[in-house]
Recover the amino acids of this structure.
């Protein structure tokens, strides 16, 4: 098991560094961002975008409303969740160059069907 | 779901993280340095590292005591550490609710309970200090807006009911209000800021720290190291090291990657080890507690942990290879964790045992619905179905259930000596609910030694290291061999408040 993990990790680390150039824009981003990487990379092209970058266009309250769940599962709203409220930086769960799992999956198995990895 | 996949996808992800982490961490070696001639990039009054219970309480208390410029630095992108995912159980003696419920309790009594579970090596002075101020800490959470269930709970090892729990049954019911309070009173909070070493003055006093800004946990981005002067001193509230497999295995080689972990990813311990390099005294590092109530079918604490804590007294834990019980389901944490780890198939591969409960009894716990809904537990109408699903030999399993039910009837467990009081009238019968069990590393009793002023002691001089304070799980020795449930929140908060008071007095 351990050996396998290391091999996989190496393969995956390789993939990650490759994909740094390969931008796979989400459809709704194509129009807005075009080829201007700086739209998001406000800290410089080689750095991750700041935690505020996405909020130039996205409003956290709107997002929270869009992903609201029923009363029983109210705290499973990724944009307004039990543990961190609305303060979870977008990059925890979303990456434009790299697939990411929702952070909730660290401890929970509930599904977010619309989450694009 | 696959029955054979022990820890599943999560372990796979973890392995990835660990391997990637090593490669990235190597060039950025943390180290403390002499501060002479240093050019400071920034100056703050009170510098707190870590944003869990200890760090948040310290920040609020420092502000109340008159500090004007309080800063919390947190290496993760989000605030709250283990505290934000904790169970929200808070023990205190002499509370209003105890008075209302007529519970006789005192500081002495709480300390006595903790000394007993500490097996003679707990720090009585610290336990007493925490117990004496626990109600104040509880008050701080309420003042900030925390809400608690309207009843007390009596947890294992406590001689009376003295535990409050937040209405959301999670530590976030405290960290969220405290964090908001910090924002309200002007505490400055910095995420993605990783502490990497102290800057030390001529006489060994702490003058400031090296802080890596723009730090992205687990990612390959260098960020930038700045030097921050801390006028009044530094409070280390960086939590435990349960997520650091190398470091925990150095203390207890049985805690391999195969044993999961309930902690937040940031519980990696470098703050504590940096204090050791400085000369702080290590205490009880090898006392690391694993939770035997966790499930390999979800990450962290998840939903199953609280489900099984509630259900163990009236359930049967079964080794899937033999179809028989293999432990007293309510023995202490270590006994059960070891027994679970010994459940293996013919090839020696892990074979997580199962916990079988009658649905009629399990369903009283609020998590049962969620456990089934989110596929981390299963409901079966017949024993045949259950046995088939988990590939348990049917005949011995049936015989075991019959035998166990005879103990429910007689009130005496001649197999493992389990106390059957709480199992009274709760026979194991269909329909059943079942979860899988596998221990997870949960709490590090060890850490740096502090006194009742939250000052960190130097191993050579025996005196406090000037300008350095520590609070919370990063400190060691307080609980001794085994910490009682719900006693960490009061400790973290009281010691965080104490550190702030000491610093403002110094
Ligand atoms: C799932 C779970 C449930 C629990 N339930 C309970 C319970 O119900 N009751 C109870 O009393 N106890 C419980 N405990 C134990 C308790 O939650 C912890 O002991 C407590 O939260 C520790 O608080 P802390 O402030 O010391 O550290 P934490 O809350 O862990 O905060 C430490 C912070 O420091 C940050 N940090 C670490 N290193 C650095 C660095 N180099 N630079 C900058 N920041 C850094 C971390 O990222 C983290 O955010 C539970 C623990 C877990 C994991």
């Amino acid at each position: 098991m351990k050996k396998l993990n290391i091999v996989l990790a190496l393969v995956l680390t390789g993939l990650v560094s490759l994909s740094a150039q390969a931008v796979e824009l989400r459809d709704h981003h194509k129009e807005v961002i075009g080829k201007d990487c700086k739209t998001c990379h406000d800290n410089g092209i080689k750095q991750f975008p700041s935690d505020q970058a996405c909020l130039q266009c996205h409003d956290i309250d709107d997002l929270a409303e869009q992903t609201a769940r029923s009363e029983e599962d109210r705290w499973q709203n990724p944009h307004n969740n039990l543990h961190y409220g609305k303060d979870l930086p977008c990059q925890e769960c979303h990456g434009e160059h790299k697939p990411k799992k929702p952070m909730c999956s660290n401890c929970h198995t509930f599904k977010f069907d619309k989450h694009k990895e | 779901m696959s029955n054979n996949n022990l820890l599943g996808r999560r372990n796979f992800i973890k392995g990835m993280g660990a391997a990637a982490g090593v490669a990235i961490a190597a060039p950025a070696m943390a180290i403390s340095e002499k501060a002479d001639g240093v050019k400071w990039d920034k100056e703050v009054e009170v510098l707190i590292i870590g944003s869990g219970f200890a760090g948040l309480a310290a920040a609020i208390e420092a502000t109340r005591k008159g500090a004007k410029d309080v800063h919390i630095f947190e290496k993760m992108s989000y605030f709250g550490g283990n505290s934000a995912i904790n169970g929200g159980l808070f023990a205190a003696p002499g509370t209003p609710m105890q008075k209302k419920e007529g519970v006789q309790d005192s500081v002495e009594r709480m300390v006595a309970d903790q000394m007993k579970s500490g097996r003679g090596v707990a720090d009585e002075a610290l336990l007493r200090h925490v117990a004496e101020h626990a109600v104040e800490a509880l008050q701080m959470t309420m003042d900030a807006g925390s809400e608690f269930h309207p009843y007390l709970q009596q947890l294992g090892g406590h001689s009376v009911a003295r535990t409050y729990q937040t209405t959301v049954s999670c530590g976030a019911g405290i960290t969220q209000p405290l964090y908001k309070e910090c924002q309200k009173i002007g505490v400055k909070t910095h995420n993605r800021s990783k502490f990497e070493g102290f800057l030390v003055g001529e006489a060994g006093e702490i003058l400031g720290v090296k802080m890596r800004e723009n730090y992205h946990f687990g990612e390959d981005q260098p960020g930038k190291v700045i030097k921050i002067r801390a006028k009044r001193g530094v409070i280390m509230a960086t939590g435990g090291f349960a997520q650091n497999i190398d470091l925990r295995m150095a203390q207890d080689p049985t805690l391999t990657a195969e044993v999961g972990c309930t902690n937040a990813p940031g519980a990696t311990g470098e703050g504590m080890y940096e204090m050791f390099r400085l000369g702080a005294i290590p205490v009880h590092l090898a006392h690391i507690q694993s939770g035997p109530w966790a499930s390999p079918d979800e990450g962290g604490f998840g939903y199953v942990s609280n489900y099984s804590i509630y259900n163990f007294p009236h359930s049967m834990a079964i080794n899937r290879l033999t179809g028989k019980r293999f432990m007293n389901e309510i023995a202490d944490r270590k006994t059960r964790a070891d027994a679970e780890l010994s459940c293996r198939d013919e090839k020696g591969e892990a074979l997580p045992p199962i916990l079988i409960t009658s649905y009629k009894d399990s369903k009283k716990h609020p998590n049962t619905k969620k456990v089934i809904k989110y596929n981390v537990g299963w409901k079966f109408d017949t024993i045949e179905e259950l046995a088939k699903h988990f590939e348990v030999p049917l005949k011995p399993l049936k015989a075991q259930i019959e035998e166990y039910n005879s103990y429910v009837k007689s009130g005496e467990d001649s197999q493992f000596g389990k106390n059957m009081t709480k199992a009274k009238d709760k026979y194991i019968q269909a329909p059943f609910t079942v979860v899988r069990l596998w221990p997870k590393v949960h709490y590090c009793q060890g850490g740096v030694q502090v006194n009742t002023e939250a000052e960190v002691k130097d191993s050579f001089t025996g005196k406090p290291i000037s300008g350095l304070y520590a609070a919370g799980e990063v400190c060691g020795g307080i609980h001794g061999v085994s910490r009682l449930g719900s006693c960490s929140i009061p400790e973290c908060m009281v010691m965080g408040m104490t550190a702030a008071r000491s610093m403002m007095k110094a």
Summary: Residues 1-28 of chain B have pLDDT under 50 and may be disordered.
